[in-house]
């Protein structure tokens, strides 16, 4: 294939644009900011789960406390009724004795319930502290995720700007080059990642490998408009006289 030497030199500009586009794409795929977002999302999910667990524990204890409150109130109501019956003197001696025994039983039952009530209320208070802590952790995790997303989106915006600008630049370069030369260049770039490189000394600018003397003499001896390629990587070797 033959192509004007100036057009071949323009391939180096195209290769530079494509290299920057490739770096942008690699940056998009491997950006640590995305990893930070994913880690923050996992942290937020864990915090959400912890809040649910703490809420459930506190809700269970709230029900237990309410249940004990009702039971204690029922015992106190029974005690009040029995004392009123004894104070009224409207019961027989045997009934009075039975009421005394029942009051003693009720007092013991109330003592047990109140002790249990106190224990559950202490656990309820501790569960409330736990929920407050987990809620704070959740709030921090939410902020961490928002910050990570903002940083990632900022980087993505920069990458997008680069891709748009270089994409437009690439279109302009392609419009200036022969179709067959661009077709060959794109084919080689798709195969090895680099379609063209500058010959600097005895080194190919695409693969960075040194050429042997025979290959170098062949390339240097080719006509200026001859499109020559590197034997190592297959890329177009652009001769600029350097």
UniProtKB/TrEMBL annotation:
InterPro entries hit by this protein: CT398_CC_hairpin, Oxidative_Scav/Glycosyltrans, Zf-RING_7
Any coiled-coil regions, as ranges: 58-123
Pfam families: CT398_CC, Zn_ribbon_9
Residue intervals of the C4-type zinc ribbon domain: 203-237
Domain CT398-like coiled coil hairpin residues, every copy: 14-193
Keywords (A to Z) from UniProt: Coiled coil
Protein name stated in the entry: C4-type zinc ribbon domain-containing protein
Organism whose genome encodes this protein: Actinomycetospora termitidis
């Amino acid at each position: 294939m033959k192509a004007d030497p100036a057009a071949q030199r323009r391939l180096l500009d195209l290769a530079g644009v494509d290299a920057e586009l490739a770096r942008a794409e690699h940056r998009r795929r491997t950006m640590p900011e995305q990893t930070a977002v994913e880690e923050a999302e996992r942290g937020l999910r864990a915090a959400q789960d912890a809040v649910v667990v703490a809420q459930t524990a506190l809700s269970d204890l709230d029900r237990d406390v309410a249940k004990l409150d009702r039971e204690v109130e029922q015992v106190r109501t029974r005690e009040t009724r029995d004392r009123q019956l004894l104070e009224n003197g409207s019961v027989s001696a045997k009934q009075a004795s039975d009421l005394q025994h029942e009051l003693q039983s009720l007092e013991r039952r109330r003592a047990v319930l109140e002790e249990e009530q106190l224990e559950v209320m202490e656990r309820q208070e501790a569960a409330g502290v736990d929920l407050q802590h987990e809620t704070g952790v959740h709030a921090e995790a939410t902020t961490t995720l928002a910050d990570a997303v903002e940083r990632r989106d900022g980087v993505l915006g920069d990458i997008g700007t680069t891709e748009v600008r270089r994409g437009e630049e690439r279109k302009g370069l392609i419009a200036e080059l022969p179709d067959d030369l661009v077709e060959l260049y794109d084919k080689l770039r798709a195969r090895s990642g680099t379609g063209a490189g500058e010959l600097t000394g005895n080194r190919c600018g695409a693969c960075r490998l040194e050429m042997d003397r025979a290959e170098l003499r062949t390339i240097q001896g080719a006509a200026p408009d001859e499109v020559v390629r590197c034997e190592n990587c297959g890329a177009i070797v652009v001769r600029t006289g350097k």
